[in-house]
Amino acid sequence: MTADTRGGDLTARRARLLVLEIARRYFGETPRRLAQRGGGLTNMVFEFRVRDGEFVVRLHSRAGQINGYLKEQWAMVQARRVGVPTPEVLEVDNEAVGLPYMVSRKVDGIDAAHHPRRVELLAELGALAARLHGVHTQGFGNNFDWSSNQLSRNANWGDYLADELCVGERLATLARHRMLKPAQTQTLLGAIDTMRRWRRAPVLHHGDLRLKNLIVAPDSGRVRALIDWDNCRSAPAPHWDLSVALHDLNVDQKESFLRGYGISPADYAEALPFMRAINTLNYAPAIEALAREKDHTRLAWYRVRLRGMFDLYP
Description:
By secondary structure, the chain is an alpha+beta fold. The chain has helices at residues 12-27, 65-81, 118-132, 157-164, 167-176, 182-196, 239-245, 251-261, 265-281, 284-292, 296-306, and strands at residues 33-39, 43-50, 53-60, 89-93, 101-105, 110-111, 203-205, 214-216, 223-226, 233-235. A hairpin with a 7-residue loop joins strand 4 and strand 5 (101-105).
């Protein structure tokens, strides 16, 4: 181990040294090619090539992130068992370099957001979501079957809303910045009150079912993998995943995804108030950040968005 690889901030230079150490440890050679593919202040993503193939390494400066990597690893194994293609995770550890890391095989292809068959691919993504929601779980939120911890596990959806999602704080944020009309607030409170009483069984959710996380063949558009499982969680189906998946889509794209998922118009209408509630609550952290920055212009536009003023239907 070189002196530069332990201690200090996770700079790009230090991260490269760590990845070289990981490659030599597991593959017995220095990579022929090493390239950074993403990252920020606390995490880095690299690709490298050795004789055994091409691999991806994710590193994180926070020791607790090893739990996040273990959660992703468990979720991807379960997803593949029900026919959802994912990257193959080969190792999750922190021993080799003193920081949490995940090593997986690289999946060749492009993200589906850049493929001309986007509408059809959304139907395929919806079908994959339906398969994924066939994975039954225990516990609600981020702590479920992947972990043997019991004391921090939410026993029901109401506990998750109160203790992990912190619904009370999010509602206070929305109210403080006047994001909703009074009638919307009452509808939101009603949906939350209903969800608190749910006793529905949880299933595995990906947490970010957007085309950018679907890797496909550049020419045929054949699906190769669903990636980026860091937001996966345990929740009743289908509300959480659909609230995220539908958010950025136009009406034709929404319909394609929902047809692929296999939900009927009547069942979609029944689920819609709860998807709207989850979507609205998930805006609260971004709104709080804008308020701290005193970005009143963007706050005003968020108010327009959440009050439904972008909808072009009566």
